[in-house]
User: Fold this.
Amino acid sequence: EPFVADEYIERLAWRTPGGGSRGGEAFDPKRLLEEFVNHIQELQVMDERIQRKVEKLEQQCQKEAKEFAKKVQELQKSNQVAFQHFQELDEHISYVATKVCHLGDQLEGVNTPRQRAVEAQKLMKYFNEFLDGELKSDVFTNSEKIKEAADIIQKLHLIAQELPFDRFSEVKSKIASKYHDLECQLIQEFTSAQRRGEISRMREVAAVLLHFKGYSHCVDVYIKQCQEGAFLRNDVFEDAAILCQRVNKQVGEIFSNPETVLAKLIQNIFEVKLQSYVKDQLEEHRKSDAEQYLKNLYDLYTRTTNLSSKLMEFNLGTDKQTFLSKLIKSIFISYLENYIEVEIGYLKSRSAMILQRYYDSKNHQKRSIGTGGIQDLKERIRQRTNLPLGPSIDTHGETFLSQEVVVNLLQETKQAFERCHRLSDPSDLPKNAFRIFSMLVEFLCTEHIDYALETGLAGIPSSDSKNANLYFLDVVHQANTIFHLFDKQFNDHLMPLISSSPKLSECLQKKKDIIEQMEVKLDMGIDTLNCMIGQMKHILAAEQKKTDFKPEDENNVLIQYTNACVKVCGYVRKQVEKIRNSMDGKNVDTVLMELGVRFHRLIYEHLQQYSYSCMGGMLAICDVAEYRKCAKDFKIALVLQLFDTLHALCNLLVVAPDNLKQVCSGEQLANLDKNILHSFVQLRVDYRSARLARHFS
Assistant:
């Protein structure tokens, strides 16, 4: 344990009688001091003793260090001597090894010709047996020595190829016959071993057959037997993957070139099993059912490529990617060549059917509506005048837009884009995607949205129509929602296919043209505001009475604002809400500003049609205050400012004559034209009094 001085002194005091540490003892400082002095002397003696011991050990250590250094020097000298001996021994071993190698080369030079001579002698002996026509050797008669026989007959067959035919035709035919027999026996033996599952025997036979012409036939037999019972389920692709995984584990134990054998198996599966399966699935619907044909083509091609991805894990040689791509192409080339034509044809007929089914459900016969020129001019004139230029189209409240139709069209196009991405050649992908996009534009944007906008425009009533129903805003609302869906599909499914091609700018331009075309029609639909103003005029004309602002009994007016004001404000609030629900972004503010300005002009002109008594002026101020509350719903600063100014103008109807100049010079009226101020003052019943005219002048 570490030395702690305080604890050491405490223990010393505790052991000393009179130290005062134990209870019941009187403290004796002299005795404690003597004990401390004695103990210090003992410690000094102990310190001197230990110091002498340390010095002795240091001397001993120095002595041993010198001895150890001397011993190390002696060992180094011994090591150098040993190293020299080792070098000499190594040189001697190298010399002996060189002699041995030279001797071995000499022996091999003598032995090799001798072995060749022995081998040639044996072959000559076996050749003589064929020449005599009688095979007596045990190697040919013993079936267990088929391996040795195969080696011999293979060599004799090569020798026979070099012999002249006229002198050795008979022996050559016998050797060839035996060669063929042994080859058949080996293949049969390989087949039997494969059925028994004897991998080692299959490996031996395959190694022997490797030098025979029938080796490829051996591989064919192996491939054929591998597939027996492998395709029993309905999923041929999964069966093929499982078969290839099983063979991949086995083929390396049997053949010396496993990658070639496995590649040949895969080629056989693709060219026989898969090609037959694909043909059966596609030819059935190729001419009769385009939808099912395209679905099957996409599904089969996808499953084939997925199978190819799994097979990429195996060793199939150097360029397995190209190998598998060629196999896939060989199966589908006849179907992919005209794929896009089938796709476009199907998409066109399917989209037309979806639209026609919708219009039939509405009992609507689609009609041709002009979009410009004389007809457009007539329509504009008709909406602004009472000239009988032909009846407008009554849509009975139908927008002729359907989210269900849109979803169906977008879903069909989405599937077409997916098929296009999978089935198109990379060089043709942007072009094919653009053609599909053009179909979507034609049927969704032109035949559906644009037609609905045209019909909605044609259905806008004239501004003097009574109880007109403004369905065009409903058309705008639905068209806006639909176009957002269209834009989403453009970004999600088309952009990835064309993003790195020149077709990108073409598609963006086409989309921009569509937007501009629709915006033009929506701008034309601003005439709906005329109808709204017309409805307000009808309400004011029907509900506002001259006596409202010039009551017979000035002291008995009980209403806060007129009935016409209540109905107009209720109508305006509904239209504002409808506009907000129908549009989004800056379009809302633009349309509401236009409506607000026209609404202000209508009320301004309406108020100038009446004369106002003092109480009538107060009621007019109350009406304008209510109109101003309604204007706040527009949330447009300009509109609110206009009604604030109108409210200030109405104060001129009730202000005392003496205060007219002060009111006219107020903050809100100071910048107005004096004629406008004068026109409002003239509406007062007491205007003709000399006093009022004098004060205003």
Notes: Confidence is low (pLDDT under 50) at residues 371-375, 380-391. The chain has 25 helices and no strands.
